[in-house]
Every structure is written in structure tokens, then in C-alpha cells.
Amino acid sequence: MRVLPSGSSALLVELDDLDAVLGFSAALRDRALPGVVDVVPAARTVLVVSDGSLADLRTALERLPWRPGRAGTGERVELPVRYDGEDLAAVAGLLGTDPDGVVAAHTGREWTVAFCGFAPGFGYCVPDAEPWDVPRLTTPRTRVPAGAVGLAGGFTGVYPSASPGGWQLIGRTDVAVFDLSRDPAALLRPGVRVRFVPC
Amino acid sequence: MLTVVAAGPLTTVQDRGRPGLGGIGVGRSGAADRAAAALANRLVGNDAAAAVLEATLGGLVVRAEADCFVVTTGARCPGSPVHAAPGLLRAGTTLALGTPVAGLRTYLAVRGGIAVPPVLGSRSTDVLSGLGPAPLRAGDVLPEGDPAGPLPGVDLAPVADPPAGEVTVRLLPGPRADWLTAAALGALPGPWTVTAESNRVGLRLAGPRLERAVDGELASEGLVRGAVQVPPSGAPVLFLADAPVTGGYPVAGYVADDDVDRCAQLRPGQALRFRC
């Protein structure tokens, strides 16, 4: 772990891999460090924003007990999905299976939201077992509808609103993963566990 | 109540933004020049969290539907008799902001604050994510909230106007300075020219091309306003209030947080230097 400078109000913690990011983020959630106003996990890093002393924050981060792993928040979300995505057959081909095999693999494992990015409420979910690697589309779509369920790299995710996008689409859900009229607005927050259920 | 007669090039509602939501992919947003917005609120006795109007390059015209106490701060616009000097806007009269001579963003605070419905705890318009109220349009009616405290009894706040010439700000270390060549690090202080492709998200800077020492892709990582990011083009971007939550290009340095406000007042064509 390396603690890198990020100006006058934040430090960037660089970690070895995503399991370390998940473990470190979970430790930060569990013990709210003084002065910390925001925690932004990403694929290899955790940005810690503070309104207090960065020297104190650096010491606290270096002393924080943590271990790599998928310690979730304890919250669980089930998302009903219609597996009729435009790229389902292509994804099956890439993974050496058929569409039913993709559905079985997607629904048969538990996912954990590792971090959010791209758009408000877009959670990057990682599987508990057997990660797969699905390339992004070479040409992103100019419009992906809200609720589209996609795969990219080792992640799965749900588009919270209509937007351009390069993930391979395997299905869609009617559940609004980001809804400003709901508290919390984002269903897929870091540390939440997700199961996809065919419907 | 204020009625928007004209919105100018871009006027948005802004407050202190949405801190603490980066984890769900929501950026902070808020007034681009926080100090100017905070001063405007103080001068009319508002709570620090009250929402104000942020006019870009003037052009905003509002009509008071009832007597109200107002002030402008930030870029000084011809036509504002209440610049840094709060005063009464009588019912039926208008306040018309001309084009500022220097600076870019003018804040109009009304006593009680702009009371449009908040989104995720803030009334700020985030032009990147689209969260918050839409930019103002002619005909919009803006309700006021309740005054938070007594009027401060200040006639005039003695603050300097944003400068028209070259501006120098402090640059602090960023996480990925080692992604730049030694020559690029030497060129980082500038001077840079603010280009017309700049907005609330960030300033796009023109100047020497910053060569990278490291090829390959950086996994996206968190950033906040003030970050100076170097995309493959070699032309840096200095992120402002509506910065993305994460970015996939190396951040070579950070403008000191207090100095970001001054950067938010820079106009296209203005020169910027970094003191490293």
C-alpha cells in the first residue's frame, strides 16, 4: 500500500488489487476516521477526502487495520433480470458457452459492488467466484437504455439512466438502481451484495 | 420571489454542493468560486448553506416580485449597484447584469436564499452529471427561503475584483507526477492559456505539450477539484466544481484548494501560471 498526495484536501491510497480495495474500503467504513468527508474506491485506489489535517490522516491510514477481502456492508439486493440483451449470444460465444450458460453463470453467483463510477449510481460489481473477462464493445453504443445489464472486463453493472455505453448487454431490469425520490438513491453502493434473478 | 427576465450565457443555482457522495458516483459540484458565493450569503445574512445564482459572463436579468435584499459578488458587472454592497431591490424593479470587465462568474444572493427543491441535499446544478435544477431560463420564477439571521449591517465588503491579466496559483503534488517526463515536469509551471473549451467541469489549458514517461493505461481513480490531469493529447485539464468523481488519466498536480476559486474566475484567453 502506498499513500500518494492529492492536493490540499485528499490522499490517494494505492493498493495491490481489487480485493485490497474492497478490504481497505470496508475498514474505512467501519471506523469513521476523524476529518474524513468522502471515500471514493476505484479499481486499484481509494481516494480519502478530508477537511482536517492531511498529516494526521496519513498516519491514521497507515495505522488502519484491514485485510483484503469482500467484507460487505451486510446489505443485499436482488435484481430481477430479463435475459434478452443484444449481446447475449456474442458473450456466450466469447465465454465458450450458450446463452443459457451465461444466464446460469450470471445468476448462480453472488456479486459485490466494488466501486461506483461512470455515472451516479453505476456500481461496478465483481463476482465471488470465477471471474470472467469480457471485452468492451469495440464501438460503444450511442444510447444504452436505463436498466440495461452489461458485462465488461471482470465486472457486471446496471445502467442507472440512458447514456452512451460500451458494455456488452445481456439483459435488463425494471428496478431503478438510481432513484432520486428514494433514500438511499443508489441501490448499488460499495459493499452491497447483489444477486441477479431471471424473470 | 425573483422572476428571470434573461438568463445570459449560463446561469445556474449553486450552493455548497453534495459532499460525501463520491462513493456512489456523485460529484460534489457547488459554486465554482466558493469564496465569492460564501461572501454573498454573508452579506445578506444567509446561512452558509443557502443557494445563490451563478451567472457566467453576466447577462442575467431578474425582476423582484416583492421587495428583497440582494447583493452580487465575484466578477463585477456593470449594471449592479449592489456589488459587494447589499441593497434593497424594490418590487417590480429589475437588476440587469452587464458583461463583466474582468472575471467570469458573478454570484447573486437574495436574502433567504434561492429555495428551489434540493436534489440529494443540494440545490446545485451539476453540468456533468445533470443532477440538480436545470440552468435558468427566461420566465423561471425563483422562490426565496426564510432568512437565517439578522442582516450583518455591512455596507460594503472590501474585496478585490478578479484580475484581468495573468494569474499565478500554487500547485501541490499530485499522485501521478511520475507519469510525466522530466521535461514535462519542467514545463508544468507554464504559462498556460485558458481555452474556450472550458466550463464548470474544468479549464482546458493550451501551452507546451506535456509528454508522458509512462505508456499504457491508468485504471480510473478518484479525484477532486483542483486536479491537473494530463490526457494523451498532452494538454492539461484543471478540474473545477463539476469535476468527475474518477478519472482515467494521470493527475500530475493539484491547485491548492483556496486557489481553485481564483481559477474559476479565469476567462478564455487569460494566462495562468503554476507555482510549484
TrEMBL record, chain A:
Keywords: ATP-binding, Hydrolase, Nucleotide-binding. The keyword Metal-binding does not apply. Pfam families: CT_C_D (PF02682). InterPro entries: CT_C_D, Cyclophilin-like_dom_sf, PxpB. Signal peptide: none annotated. One of its GO terms (molecular function) is hydrolase activity. Residues 1-188 form the Carboxyltransferase domain. It comes from the Bacteria. This is Sensor histidine kinase inhibitor, KipI family.
Automatic annotation (TrEMBL), chain B:
InterPro entries: CT_A_B (IPR003778), Cyclophilin-like_dom_sf (IPR029000), PxpC (IPR052708). This is Biotin-dependent carboxylase uncharacterized domain-containing protein. The keyword Zinc-finger does not apply. Keywords: ATP-binding, Hydrolase, Nucleotide-binding. GO terms for molecular function: ATP binding; hydrolase activity. The keyword Hydrolase applies. Residues 23-276 form the Carboxyltransferase domain. SUPFAM superfamilies: Cyclophilin-like.
